[in-house]
Amino acid sequence: MKYKKIFILGGTTEGRMLAEYLIRKDVEVWLSVATDYGKEQMHHTEGIYLIEERLDERAMLQLLKEKQFDCVLDATHPYAQLVTQNIKSACEKVGVLYKRIIRESYDKEEGIYYFDNVAEIVHFLSQVEGDVLLTTGSKDLASFTLLNHYEQRLYVRMLPMPKGIEIAISLGYQMSHLICMQGPFSYEMNKALLRHVKAKYLVTKDSGDIGGMQDKVRAAKALGVEVICLTRPVKEEGLRLEQIYQWLEE
C-alpha cells in the first residue's frame, strides 16, 4: 500500500472498520475518537495510536505538522459538521491529502416527518399527544426539555456511558425513562422496545443503513408508530466506505 502512516477521525463504525483494515495492511494508524463510546470500542485494539481528546482546528494543525501523516481519512459522523470543517481546513493549510468518508442517506419515504433542526421537532411534538422514543443520543437532550411534560413523555435510548447518563439526570429526565443500550439494534429489538414504552412517536437522525435506520423505520411502521427524522445539516461530497477501500488499494 502506498500510504504507511494514516490519521483517521471518527469512533464511528466506518472509522473502526477502516482502522482495523489498515492495521492488517501494516499501516501505522492514528485514530481520533471524541466520545467515551469510541474510546471503549477501540481501547484494546492492538496497533492503533489512539487520540482520546477533542481536537479543535489549532490542535489538528499542530498534530498534522508534528506527525507528518501521508493521508487523513475523515470518518466522523454525518452530523459532526464542525469537526469536518476543522480537519479539512487544517489539511489544506498543511498540505496533507484529505479524504471524506460519507455515509449514504436513508432514502426519503412517504409517511415520515422530516425536520431540519431539533427546535422544529420540539414544536411539532408540542402540538400532538403521546409518548416519544428518542434515539438521537445525549447531545440534544437539553433542547428537548423545552417540551411540556418532557419528563413523562420522553423515553431516551442512549449509550450506557456514565457522562451521558449524568447529563440526562441533571436535565430532569427520569431514570426509568433512560434506556441505556449499545447497538446495533435489530428490527425485532426496535419493535420490542417501541412496544414496551408504548411510543406513539419515534425520533431519529438519518444515520443511514449502516447506522440502523432501516430497522428502526420498519419496526415503527409495523406498530403504527410515527417516525420523525432530523435531516442532515449538509449534503456532503466524498467517498463511500467501499470506495475508500478501493482507492487505498489502488
TrEMBL record:
Enzyme class: oxidoreductase
GO molecular function: precorrin-6A reductase activity
Any Gene Ontology biological process: cobalamin biosynthetic process
Domain of life: Bacteria
InterPro entries hit by this protein: Precorrin-6x_reduct
Keyword vocabulary terms for this entry: Cobalamin biosynthesis, Oxidoreductase
Pathway participation: Cofactor biosynthesis; adenosylcobalamin biosynthesis
Keyword Oxidoreductase: yes
Enzyme Commission number(s) from the entry: 1.3.1.54
Keyword Oxidoreductase: yes
UniProt-listed Pfam families: CbiJ
Protein name: Precorrin-6A reductase
Phylogenetic classification of the source organism: Bacteria, Bacillati, Bacillota, Clostridia, Lachnospirales
